[in-house]
Structure to design on (127 residues):
C-alpha cells in the first residue's frame, strides 16, 4: 500500500532525521574518545579485543549514518524537484510516504541505543 502524506509533514520528518543523524555522528565521536581513554589505560588483551570490537561497530554505524543521510537527501531532492516542476498548491500536495526509510531509521536508532548501552557497560567495568 502506497500511502500519501503532505509534503510539509515529510519535510519536517526529513529535517528531524537529518538532525538526529548529526547528533548520532557526534555521539560516535564522543564514544570513540571514551574508548580511546580505556585503550590508553589498559593493555590487557581482553580489553583490547573489546576495543577493536567497538571500533568496528562504530565504523558500521558511521557507514549507516552516511547511507541514511544519502537516502534522506534523495527524498528531499525528489520533493524539491516536484515542487519546482509544479509549484501550484505545493503546500497542499501529498507525496508518497517514505515508510521504508522510517523503518530503517527506527531500526538504526534501536541498534545505536544497544551499542551505546553495551559501551557504557564496558566503560563502567574498565574505568
Amino acid at each position: 500500500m502506497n500511502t500519501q502524506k503532505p509534503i510539509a509533514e515529510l519535510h519536517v520528518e526529513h529535517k528531524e532525521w537529518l538532525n538526529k543523524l548529526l547528533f548520532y555522528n557526534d555521539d560516535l565521536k564522543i564514544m570513540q574518545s571514551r574508548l580511546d581513554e580505556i585503550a590508553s589505560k589498559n593493555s590487557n588483551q581482553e580489553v583490547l579485543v573489546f576495543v577493536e570490537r567497538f571500533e568496528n561497530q562504530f565504523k558500521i554505524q558511521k557507514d549507516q549514518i552516511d547511507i541514511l543521510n544519502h537516502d534522506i537527501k534523495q527524498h528531499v531532492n525528489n520533493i524539491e524537484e516536484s515542487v519546482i516542476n509544479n509549484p501550484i498548491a505545493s503546500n497542499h500536495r501529498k507525496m508518497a510516504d517514505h515508510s521504508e526509510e522510517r523503518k530503517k531509521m527506527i531500526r538504526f536508532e534501536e541498534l545505536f541505543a544497544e551499542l551505546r548501552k553495551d559501551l557504557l557497560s564496558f566503560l563502567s567495568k574498565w574505568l
Summary: The first helix runs from residue 7 to 41. The radius of gyration is 19 Å.
